[in-house]
């Protein structure tokens, strides 16, 4: 049976295990090619599960799933809890490497353009928490019925010691479609000198989207943390493959 989405794969295999039709609701949608190192979905079932049953289900389900999908936990929550609507904070990370590396191509954006000015990028990142309306950073703003407000609570730029691996991390109560990739694209333009800080900030002030807005490639983007009033778990996935033998990388906050 062919599947085109992660949701379809999960529903199909859960249905086989539980011997009933399963419908799940995820915490949000991601564009094709975007990764999720932490993701929640919920399902309703009349079956009673003990902790032993839950552990067995996690084990059996992971044996059935393809190599790029893993279940870490099954958590019992109130039957009114909703994976999408009750999330209070979402965090995305975007990774960039500035050299050619075939081992990172599917997991990080290989930027090989002009040299990036990290100080200018840092200044641009610091502006994000000062504004609420992100209509100018949305792929399809008309679908939001004029509600394009987002409460960005933190925005940070990290780099390795050589400055050739970058990490842009942004947390908000919600993200508009394409918003994170649009922000990253304009941050790169700012760092490359193709856009001034004033031009970057003007998008935040004017709320006027471009007709041909540019989006950073999807493979560098990770949905990395979801917080609920009743759940806040650390991410259990190592979501940035490294080429160093020791598999360690120190990120420096700029």
Notable characteristics:
alpha+beta, 254 residues, two-stranded antiparallel ribbon, 24% helix, Alpha-Beta Plaits
Question: Can you describe this structure in just a few lines?
Answer:
This protein has about 250 residues and is of the alpha+beta class. It has a domain at about 90-254: Alpha-Beta Plaits (2-Layer Sandwich), CATH 3.30.70.
CATH homology group of one domain = Pseudouridine synthase I, catalytic domain, C-terminal subdomain
Mean pLDDT: 87
Distance between the termini: 48 Å
Q: According to CATH, what is the topology of one domain?
A: Alpha-Beta Plaits
- Any idea of the CATH class of one domain? Alpha Beta
What does this structure look like?
The protein is of the alpha+beta class. The protein has a domain at 89-253: 2-Layer Sandwich (Alpha-Beta Plaits). It contains 5 helices and 9 strands, in the order H-E-E-E-H-E-E-H-E-E-H-H-E-E. It has helices at 6-18, 51-64, 118-127, 179-191, 197-206; strands spanning 25-26, 35-36, 41-42, 89-97, 109-110, 152-159, 165-172, 221-227, 252-253. The strands form 2 sheets. Strands 2, 4, 5, 6, 7, 8 and 9 form a 7-stranded mixed sheet that branches. Strands 1-3 form a two-stranded antiparallel ribbon. The longest helix is centred in the first third of the chain and has 14 residues, at 51-64.
């Amino acid at each position: 049976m062919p599947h085109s989405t992660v949701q379809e794969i999960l529903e199909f295999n859960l249905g086989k295990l539980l011997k009933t039709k399963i419908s799940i609701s995820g915490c949000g949608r991601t564009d094709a090619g975007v990764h999720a190192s932490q993701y929640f979905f919920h399902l309703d079932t009349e079956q009673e599960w003990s902790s032993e049953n839950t552990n067995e289900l996690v084990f059996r389900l992971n044996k059935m799933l393809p190599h790029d999908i893993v279940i870490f936990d099954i958590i019992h929550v109130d039957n009114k809890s909703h994976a999408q609507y009750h999330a209070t904070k979402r965090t995305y990370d975007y990774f960039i490497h500035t050299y050619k590396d075939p081992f990172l191509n599917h997991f990080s954006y290989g930027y090989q353009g002009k040299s990036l000015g990290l100080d200018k990028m840092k200044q641009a990142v610091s502006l994000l928490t000062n504004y609420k309306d992100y209509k100018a950073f949305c792929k399809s703003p008309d679908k939001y019925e004029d509600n394009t407000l987002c409460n960005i609570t933190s925005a940070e730029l990290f780099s390795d010691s050589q400055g050739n691996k970058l990490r842009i991390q942004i947390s908000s109560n919600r993200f508009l479609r394409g918003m994170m990739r649009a922000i990253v694209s304009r941050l790169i333009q700012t760092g490359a000198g193709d856009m001034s800080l004033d031009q970057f900030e003007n998008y935040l002030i004017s709320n006027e989207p471009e007709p041909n807005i540019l989006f950073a490639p999807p493979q560098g983007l990770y949905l990395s943390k979801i917080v609920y009033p009743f759940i806040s778990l650390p991410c259990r996935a190592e979501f940035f493959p490294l080429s160093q033998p020791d598999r360690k990388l120190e990120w420096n906050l700029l």
